[in-house]
From TrEMBL:
Protein name listed in UniProt: Ribose-5-phosphate isomerase A
Residues involved in substrate binding: 31-34, 87-90, 100-103, 127
Organism, as annotated: Bifidobacterium phasiani
Molecular function via GO: ribose-5-phosphate isomerase activity
InterPro entries: Ribose5P_isomerase_typA_subgr, Ribose5P_isomerase_type_A
EC number: 5.3.1.6
Pathway note: Carbohydrate degradation; pentose phosphate pathway; D-ribose 5-phosphate from D-ribulose 5-phosphate (non-oxidative stage): step 1/1
UniProt keyword list: Isomerase
Pfam families: Rib_5-P_isom_A
Family affiliation: Belongs to the ribose 5-phosphate isomerase family.
């Protein structure tokens, strides 16, 4: 699938998901290429249809995009609930376990998600897999002692790689932390891995989002299709 086809599927999923936002809602807005299409469509609805809602964003770049359309964005601590959060995902399997954090926003994404009444992911069909893990698993770590955390991960066979930017400097998250990507290829025991990662000192959060999502809207060549998590 080339990039133009993939973008068309992402856009279709984003436009479909935008229908879930209604007047007066408090909506969590995720981060990433698919969410950009969602925010574009929400911006159109605000300007053309008079849609009025309040957004809580999972990154500064989503906030800037949304505010450019006149969408009201507030701090997560200024709301008492979030009706629905719409976000992308890097991988999702049939058990509704997912990997997020390709865009280095996993910590804010998870905080917004766990404070939401409903979680919706929008993905193109290439993100739907049998077993998660082919996409490198992002782990957010504080800079102090990050090299020691990487050594611990190496000893466990997690194949960690500190994420670097184009200049060869460590990528910084919105909280100014580092991201270590684990090249695991497949994750057969995600719950055990999640527990091991989050209890490692120096780890702030990991990109395993396990059985958290309620609905996945998949951009498909035949039109957006919906996967519903019956375990939620």
């Amino acid at each position: 699938m080339d990039k133009a086809q993939q973008d068309a599927l992402k856009k279709a999923a984003g436009i479909e998901a935008a229908k879930l936002i209604e007047n007066g809602m408090i909506a969590g807005l995720g981060t990433g290429s698919t969410v950009r299409f969602l925010v574009d469509e929400l911006g159109r609805r605000v300007q053309e249809e008079g849609l009025r809602f309040t957004g809580v964003t999972t990154s500064r770049r989503t906030q800037e995009q949304a505010e450019g359309y006149g969408i009201t964005i507030v701090d997560i601590d200024d709301v008492d609930h979030i009706d629905v959060t719409i976000d992308g995902a890097d991988e999702v399997d049939k058990n509704f376990n997912g990997i997020k954090g390709g865009g280095a926003a996993l910590l804010w994404e998870k905080i917004v998600a766990i404070n939401s009444n409903r979680i919706v992911w929008i993905v193109d069909e290439s993100k739907v897999v049998d077993t998660i893990g082919k996409f490198p698993l992002p782990v957010e770590v504080i800079p102090f002692g990050a090299g020691q955390v990487v050594k611990k991960f190496e000893a466990k066979g997690y194949k960690p790689v500190l994420r670097l930017d184009a200049e060869g400097q460590p990528v910084r998250t919105d909280e100014n932390n580092y991201v270590v990507d684990l090249h695991l290829d497949r994750i057969d025991h995600p719950e055990a891995l999640a527990e091991d990662l989050i209890t490692t000192v120096g780890v702030v959060e990991h990109g395993l989002f396990l059985n958290m999502v309620d609905t996945v809207i998949v951009g498909d060549p035949n039109g957006p299709r919906v996967m519903t998590n019956s375990n939620k």
